């Protein structure tokens, strides 16, 4: 199926979830995660009207960026090793995976402009997941005020991989509540207005719980292999 057709279905689901919860669909951005697919397929997404592209590895990111460039807004969504920061920093618009001080230091050192970052939170507490424990988020964000090139635009999480809707919903809701509490602090360096949450199998719940950036791979561009 074409990206355009898939996008229409997804937009329909987003519209329904917004209708149900009294949200404005214009507040929900779709980041097309192109890590599984070719440059051609990523280009197809841009042609279909997708503005935001996301990659989770530095190599894949650079490959796609070289081919597509400034036509898209670029998101780095995966675990970011500090030594890879300098490779991507000049090209990336949003980093979704800020989860430790050493990474903040490296971003601050290498960036030549303010970097929009999401602080990644491990809400579910699964060992396999990256991100800060919810109780560590406040002190971490306070510490980030020392870095003039880091702006905390929001929080990011990945829900546990499960069919249990209640578990997923609880995870997203906890992230939203955390975001609201950070917002209340009115930190100049951390407006924290955004929520990066929701993937192919749980994005409808994420929209219902307040997501502003969905990270969609499989359901939007498929998972064709990169040659
Ligand atoms: C791969 C990936 C996604 C997209 O996953 P799908 O289930 O294919 O939509 C979203 N977020 C992160 C951090 C990812 O690594």
Topology of helices and strands:
Elements: H1 3-21, E1 29-33, H2 39-47, E2 52-55, H3 58-68, E3 73-76, H4 85-88, E4 94-98, H5 101-110, E5 115-120, H6 137-143, E6 150-156, H7 165-185, E7 194-196, H8 203-208, E8 213-216, H9 218-221
Parallel strand pairs: 1-2, 1-8, 2-3, 3-4, 4-5, 5-6, 6-7
The protein binds pyridoxal-5'-phosphate (PLP).
Pyridoxal-5'-phosphate binds at residues 33, 35, 56, 77-78, 158, 199-200, 215-219.
Description:
This protein has 227 residues and is of the alpha/beta class. It has one domain: Alanine racemase (TIM Barrel). Helix content is 40%, strand content 17%. The chain is built from 9 helices and 8 strands. It has an 8-stranded parallel β-sheet with strand order 7-6-5-4-3-2-1-8. Helix 4 links the parallel strand 3 (73-76) and strand 4. It is globular. The two termini are 19 Å apart. The chain binds pyridoxal-5'-phosphate (PLP). It holds the Pfam family Ala_racemase_N. Keywords: Pyridoxal phosphate. The modification N6-(pyridoxal phosphate)lysine is found at residue 35. Residues 7-223 form the Alanine racemase N-terminal domain.
Give a nutshell description of this structure:
The chain is α/β, with parallel strands linked by helices and 227 residues long. Helices cover 40% and strands 17% of the residues.
Strand order of the largest sheet: 7-6-5-4-3-2-1-8
Average per-residue pLDDT, rounded, comes to 96
Structural class by sheet pairing and helices: alpha/beta
Order of helices and strands: HEHEHEHEHEHEHEHEH
Percentage of residues in strands? 15-25%
> Which ligands accompany this protein?
pyridoxal-5'-phosphate
CATH class equals: Alpha Beta
Shape: globular
Query: Helix coverage percent of residues?
Result: 40-55%
Q: Give the low-pLDDT segments.
A: none
CATH architectural name:
Alpha-Beta Barrel
> What is the CATH superfamily?
Alanine racemase
